[in-house]
Amino acid sequence: MKILRKGITTGTCAAAATKAVALWQSTGNCPSSVKVIVPAGYEIELEIKKLNNGCCGVIKDAGDDPDVTDKMMIISKVRIFNENGLITYKAGEGVGIVTVDGLKVQKGEPAINPVPRKQIEDELRKIIGDKCAEVTISISGGEEVAKKTFNPKMGIVGGLSIIGTTGIVRPMSEEAMKDSIALELQMKKAQGTDSMCFVIGASGEKSLNQLNIRIKWITHVSNYIGAMLDVAEELGYKHILIWGFGGKLIKLAANIMNTHSHVAEGRREILCTVAALKGADRDAILELYNSPNISEAIRIAKKYNLHNMWQDIVEEASKNCILRTHNKIEVAVVFLENDSTILAKSNNYHRVLKELEQ
C-alpha cells in the first residue's frame, strides 16, 4: 500500500510568509526560506517567494490530499508599528470574511481561524517582539476556488479560509469533509435551530424546491449520514429529516449509515428480504434481486402488487436512525423516486416537517 505524503496547511503557509516579511523588513534581505514550528510540535522549513510591494508568498503543498488549495500561493503583507500592542488581521484578495455567528472567528473578521492566528503571532513575535502589527493575508485566485467549498454555505464570503489545527495536512479527505459538515451543523445550531434537514447533495435540495417544500435549515451530508447523526446528537438537535433518493437511503434500513458504494451495498438484499416477508413468490424475489436500479425495482414491486413494501423499508430506516441517536432525536426519512416525486415517507414525517418549515 502506498504511504500517502503529508502536506502543509494554509495556516502554516501564512505563518511562514508572515515571518519572511518581518525578517525582510528587519534585516533588509528577503529570506529564500524560513523555519516555522507547526502546532503538531515540530519544525519545518518552507521556501519563500519574494513578491512586489514587500509581500512574501508560500506555495501550498497539500501532499497527497485532494485539497482545493493545493499549489495556491498564500501571501502575507505586514505593517509593523513602533508602539507595543496587538497583532490584527485583514483579509486580502481571496480570503473570506465571516458573516454569521457560530463559527470560530467572530462575525466581520477575516476567515483566519484561531490556530493559524496563533501560528502567525508566534512566528511574528520572534522577529518584532511586543510591537503591534497588521497582517494582511491573501490567496491568489481564492475567491473563485472558494465557490467549490463549503465556505459560502457556512457564511464565509469573498474567499477561502486560513485553517489548520496541526499545521500539517494528513491525506484523509473523507475526514476533512466530515469535519466541514460537522462545523456547519455547529454553526447552524449556534444560530438557534434544533431541527435540520439532511440531504445527500444538490439534487436533493433541488427536489424540495420542485415539490414546493420550504425548509430553511438544510445541510448537505454527502454519504456520511451516521456520522452526522452522531454530531447532531452531541450538539443537541431534536428533529432531523433525511431527504433523498431511495436508491441511496434504502441502505439505512439495513443500518448501513455510510451510503457510499465502496462502504457497503445490500440494496438488493433489503428489497428481497422485505418482499419475502410480505409473501412474495420466488419469481418476484428473483426479479427484484436482478433489478439494476431503483426505478426498475419500483416497476417490479408494482407488477407483483408489492408497492407498499417501500413503507416498511422507510419505517425501518427511520427506526435505525433514531436508534443511532439513542432515541434523543426524532428522525424522519423520505425516499424519492428518480423524478423527485416521493416514493415513501416515514409516519413521523409531517411531525418533523412542521419543525422545519419556514
The gist of it:
About 40% of the residues lie in helices and about 20% in strands.
Structure characterization notes:
This protein is an alpha/beta fold. It has 2 domains: 7-171, CbiD-like; 174-356, no CATH class. Helix content is 38%, strand content 21%. The chain has helices spanning 10-27, 114-128, 142-146, 151-154, 173-190, 202-210, 225-235, 246-249, 267-277, 282-289, 294-303, 309-324, 349-356; strands spanning 7-8, 33-37, 43-47, 49-50, 56-59, 73-84, 87-91, 97-98, 131-139, 156-157, 168-169, 195-199, 218-220, 239-245, 330-336, 342-345. A 5-stranded mixed beta sheet has the order 4-5-6-9-7. The longest helix is centred in the N-terminal third of the chain and has 18 residues, at 10-27. It is elongated, with a radius of gyration of 25 Å.
